[in-house]
Amino acid sequence: MAEEKKAVPEAVTCDTATIKMLHIAQAKGEETIFDRAVKMKQCNIGTEGICCKICSQGPCRLPLTKGIKEGTEPDNRMGLCGATPETIAARNMVRMIAGGCATHSDHGRGVIETFRAMAYGEAKDYTIKDEIKLREVAGYFGVATTVTEGDETFPRDKWEIAREVADIALGQWGQQQGRMIYHNRAPEATKERWIKQGVWPRGIDREVVEIMHRTHMGVDQDYRNLLKQGARCSLGNGWGGSMMATDMQDIMFGTPYPSTGNINLGVLSETKINIIVHGHDPLLSEMIVAAVHTPDMIEYAKAQGADGYIVAGMCCTANEILMRHGMPIAGDYLQQELAVITGAVEAMVVDVQCVMENLANISECYHTKFITTMPIAKCASGKNTMHIEFEEHHAMEKAKEIVRTAADNFKNRGQTSIPSETNKMVMGFSTEAIKYHLGGTFRGSFVPLNDNIINGRIRGIAGVVGCNNARVPHDTGHIELMKELIKNDVIVLTTGCAAMAAGKAGLLTPESAAVFCGPGLAEVCETVGIPPVLHMGSCVDNSRILTAATEVIKAGGLGKELADLPAVGSAPGWMSEKAVGIAQYFITSGVSVMLGVPLPIYGAPKLVKLLEEEMEDLYGAKWGYEPDPIKCAHKMIEIIDKKRKALGIDTARERVLMDMADRQKIEAA
Ligand code: MSK
User: With 338 labelled, which of 25, 256, 460, 617 sits at a CA distance of 20 to 30 A?
Assistant: First the structure.
């Protein structure tokens, strides 16, 4: 009998902990996503985006032949109804945008609902941790932060402000007409572009629903018109649902500031109760972190013979608790099965998004309790699978129930194989933190960053974000791309699983600047004391990159709209619909995005032309695809250099520092 195909660990990842765990998994006969990716071939037609499953007369498959590609035969492909490859691929793509935007924004809705319950006194376990941010956010919604009595003005009660903010914010999901409010934060020229292109969103839910309507059989049959709605929907998420989620999380749990933490599977403990919180939503994980520090839970751990607890994160829940509490990260999306295979995890507690269904099966082979917590995200099978439903009104009670379940399971732990790898990193660069880091606590400013971009020490800004994808080597593309960018003096902002790749490779430390950066960026990093790759949070926190970019415009000297900035994005290993939604909101905002894994569009040449060329005329930014990370870095640098040239800063120049005599000369002239 032929031997089953398996992944070659050294070929599918550059992370040594993952290599070790894959060898252990394969020796034990446990199959992981890495093996399944080798065994299961992708569908050619699907990957090119030209399979239509929208009605039951199909699926209609329209393969792109060599003749059509080379122009030697006419392209008269059509589905049963006459749908062209462009219509089919565009419908598929905007449905991905809708899926991604719905996912992030529904996370956002949950956050606002809890925020509102807190403001109305119905969720007693939550509180306002960042009142300054609440007052700032109130300003964006037009909510008064002061009251005037007679001649005197007083700060308004924070709970009153929170209630008004919560009501207005929640209304943004169901708003039917007009323009969403939060988008007013964007630079004026960016907003003018949105108005001109007709893509300023009306309300979050409305734009998602409209995509589902337009992509039904026999509705919108113009691929350009479909993508226009995709652009509008993406903005509803980027500057709406996602940005509001980030801001309300900051108000309730604290705005992140730089601190240190550890990453990789080696953070799991032989002697403590290991609880992994996995997914994206910090509402529950925040409570679990608080619960394990309560005296009764500490006693409970001792009673089970354990030295305490490790709460380690996985995927973006990890980024959330790492940035605010310094809790360790066990791993990224592709490491979730491996975490269970260590045999050291008492509870894998999941909320929403990026949770592999196979966790239920893998958990059955160990003592691990696989605990689902959200009513919208249950798992149907598995003897170790259980559901403990999270309720914001009894958040701490539920968190303690989960912690006790994990503690009770400690005695069932068998043999473990925890790899030793962990890496130190600095994380927590929110927009506010970058501002204070550059300009000082009392006069935070982006001006020093702008000055260093203008004088050429920093060539440009790159956002390297997104997932891991089992179809490309784990972490490899992210790390090679980031190293090539910083070597060329491009500062990198990172989120999601890309940030974890950077952490594991040691790129999130200030010391890495001297090793990996070009001379200009190294000098800036060493002077300011920052890493060349700045960890900005989870995938919902990509909105922080938008607010940071807006601060750069406000600081002056680098153009009027986001499309003017020497900035570019990349998702080298994207896999989820959320990534498509994020990339589209960056592009619609004026920042081009290069992908390392192809979009399912390449069977529809006219759609490719729209996305990779014509979109630049509409939004000042476009899509791109380059699987080779080094080539990708240079394509990104090309975009940056083009923007520098347009700004007239393509030749290095120093900022002239004037003394009093110089100023007097100007005034006298
Ligand atoms: S967790 S969406 S694999 S970044 Fe946000 Fe990672 Fe992508 Fe999930």
Answer: 256
Beta partners for residue 261, in sequence order? 425
Residue among 539, 570, 580, 595 to mutate when testing ligand 1 (max atoms within 8 A of CB): 539
Report the nearest-CA residue for atom 3 of ligand 1: 467
Residue 315 near ligand 1, beta carbon < 6 Å: yes
Residues 6+ apart with CB under 8 A from 404: 297, 300
Where do the H-state alpha helices sit in 120-203?
Answer: 131-140, 158-174, 188-197
Q: 215-231, pLDDT tens digit by residue?
A: 999 999 999 999 999 99
pLDDT digits (tens, 9 = 90+) for 592-607: 999 999 999 999 999 9
Q: Which uninterrupted H or E stretch holds 50?
A: none
Measure the CA–CA gap between 463 and 467, rounded to whole angstroms: 13
Neighbouring CB atoms inside 10 A of 519's CB total 9
User: Measured between alpha carbons, how far is 217 from 215 in angstroms, rounded to an integer?
Assistant: 6
pLDDT over 90 (residue 85): yes
Taking CA atoms only, the protein residue closest to ligand 1 atom 1 is 315
pLDDT above 70: residue 665 = no
Which atom of ligand 1 is nearest the CA belonging to 540?
A: 5
* Whole-number pLDDT of residue 3: 73
CA pair distance 131, 115, nearest whole angstrom: 13
Segment 407-419, tens digit of pLDDT: 999 999 999 999 9
Q: Is the pLDDT score of 91 beyond 90?
A: yes
> CA–CA distance from 442 to each of 137, 220, 438, 445, 539 (Å)?
20, 53, 11, 9, 29
As a whole number of angstroms, the distance between CA 236 and CA 32 comes to 36
Expressed in angstroms, the distance from the first to the final Cα of the chain is: 91
* Cβ–Cβ < 8 Å for 103, 579: no
Identify whether the C-beta of residue 64 lies closer than 8 Å to the C-beta of residue 103.
no
Give pLDDT tens digits for 518-547.
999 999 999 999 999 999 999 999 999 999
Among the atoms of ligand 1, which is closest to the Cα of residue 538?
5
| Mean pLDDT along residues 34-38 | 98
Q: Which tokens is 176 given?
A: 């039917």
Mean pLDDT throughout 558-571?
98
- What residues contact residue 229 under an 8 Å CB cut-off, 6+ apart? 94, 207, 210, 211, 214, 220
Query: How far, in Å, CA of 37 to CA of 665, rounded?
Result: 70
Length of the chain: 669
Q: Is 68 in the pocket of ligand 1 (CB under 6 A)?
A: no
With a 6 Å cutoff on the Cβ, whether 576 touches ligand 1 is yes
List phi, psi (to 5°) of 20: -60, -45
Q: Reduce the secondary structure of 451-509 to three states and give it as a string.
A: HHHHCCCCCEEEEECCCCCCCCCECHHHHHHHHHHHHCCEEEEECHHHHHHHHHCCCCC
Positive/negative CA dihedral, 491, 497, 500, 502: negative
Q: Is 559 helix (H, G, I), strand (E, B) or coil?
A: coil
C-alpha span between 317 and 353 (Å, rounded):
10
From ligand 1's centre to the CA of 573, what distance in Å? 10
H helix count then E strand count, the chain: 30, 18
SS3 551: helix
Q: Is the CB of 228 under 6 A from ligand 1?
A: no
Among 71, 70, 69, 50, which residue's Cα sits nearest to residue 60?
Answer: 50
Number of the ligand 1 atom closest to the C-alpha atom of 496: 4
